[in-house]
Design a protein that fits this description.
Radius of gyration: 20 Å
Strand order of the largest sheet: 5-2-1-6-7-8
Helix content: 40-55%
Distance between the termini: 40 Å
Order of helices and strands: EHEEEHEHEHHEHHHEHHHH
Shape: globular
Structural class: alpha/beta
Low-confidence stretches: none
Mean pLDDT: 89
Number of helices: 12
C-alpha cells in the first residue's frame, strides 16, 4: 500500500476477472485502502495461466495495492459482515452481471440506506438498461460487438481481434476511476454519495472516437489497414510536422 491524494479513503472492491479489478488497483495507487472481497471460490482470474508461485499473473497485475478477504454473500453471517464493511467505506465497486448484485442484497439502494455518503460504482458489459443488461461479457466479445474486429487486420485479409491484452477491460477500469473521482469530488460539495455506471461498450466506443468521427464525416465504413495510417495522416500536414519533429 502507498500514500497519496486518496489516503484515508476506504474502498470495498467486489470485482472479478478483467473489467473492474484494475479500477480498485488504481485507487490503491492513489493511496486508498482497497479491500478486495472474494467469494469462497475466489476470483476466477487467480488460476489463469501463466502463473507465478501458483497465482495467475493477470490476477496479480490487476489486483496490486489491495488487501484481501473472503466473504460469502449468500451466507447470513457473510452478508451481515459485507453490510458492516460497506457501512465503513467511501467507495464500493462491483461488476456482477445485471441483477445479480441486487439479488445478493448489495445493490445501490440497499447500500445507500446504510451509507448515504457511499460512492457506488457499477461496471457492466452493455449498460444497466436495454435487452442486454443482464448479459455477461468479456474483452473479446466486446471487440466483436463494438466493431473493433471489423477495423483490425491486414487489408483484404480476414478480420481479427486486436492482440489480446484486455485493453477494453483496462479502459473500462480507467473510465470507472474517472467516474469515481468525479463523484468523490462532488461529495465534497454536497456531502452525499451517488451511483457511477460504466460499461465496456462505452469504453470500446470511446477508444474508437476518431474512427467514428471519420465515418460520420465521410459516410464510408472504415476498412482494416494493418499497420498503415489513414490517407489524411500519410499525406497531410500532420505527417510532415511529425517527420520534422523526428
Amino acid at each position: 500500500m502507498t500514500t497519496g491524494p486518496l489516503t484515508g479513503l476506504r474502498v470495498m472492491d467486489a470485482t472479478i476477472l478483467g473489467a473492474g479489478p484494475y479500477a480498485g488497483s488504481l485507487l490503491g495507487m492513489l493511496g486508498a485502502d482497497v479491500i478486495k472481497v472474494e467469494s469462497p471460490a475466489g476470483d476466477g482470474g487467480r488460476w489463469n495461466p501463466p502463473t507465478q508461485r501458483g497465482m495467475g499473473t493477470v490476477y496479480l497485475s490487476l489486483n496490486v495495492n489491495k488487501r484481501d478477504m473472503t466473504l460469502d454473500f449468500k451466507d447470513p453471517d457473510g452478508y451481515k459482515n459485507a453490510l458492516a464493511l460497506a457501512s465503513t467505506c467511501d467507495v464500493f465497486i462491483q461488476n456482477f452481471r445485471g441483477g445479480v448484485i441486487e439479488r445478493l442484497g448489495l445493490g445501490y439502494d440497499k447500500l445507500r440506506e446504510i451509507n448515504p455518503k457511499l460512492v457506488y460504482c457499477s461496471i457492466s458489459g452493455f449498460g444497466e438498461k436495454g435487452p442486454l443488461a443482464s448479459a455477461g461479457c468479456a474483452d473479446g466479445v466486446m471487440q466483436a460487438f463494438s466493431g473493433f474486429v471489423r477495423l483490425n487486420g491486414a487489408p483484404g485479409d480476414d478480420l481479427e481481434q486486436v492482440r489480446f491484452t484486455g485493453f477494453i477491460d483496462l479502459t473500462t477500469s480507467t473510465m470507472a476511476l474517472r467516474g469515481i473521482l468525479a463523484a468523490l469530488l462532488e461529495r465534497e460539495y454536497s456531502g452525499e454519495g451517488q451511483k457511477v455506471e460504466v460499461s465496456m461498450l462505452e469504453a470500446a466506443l470511446e477508444l474508437q472516437a476518431t474512427r467514428l468521427a471519420e465515418f460520420l464525416a465521410s459516410k464510408k465504413n472504415p476498412q482494416p489497414m494493418g499497420v498503415n495510417r489513414p490517407d489524411w495522416f500519410r499525406t497531410g500536414p500532420l505527417r510532415r510536422w511529425i517527420v520534422r519533429c523526428l
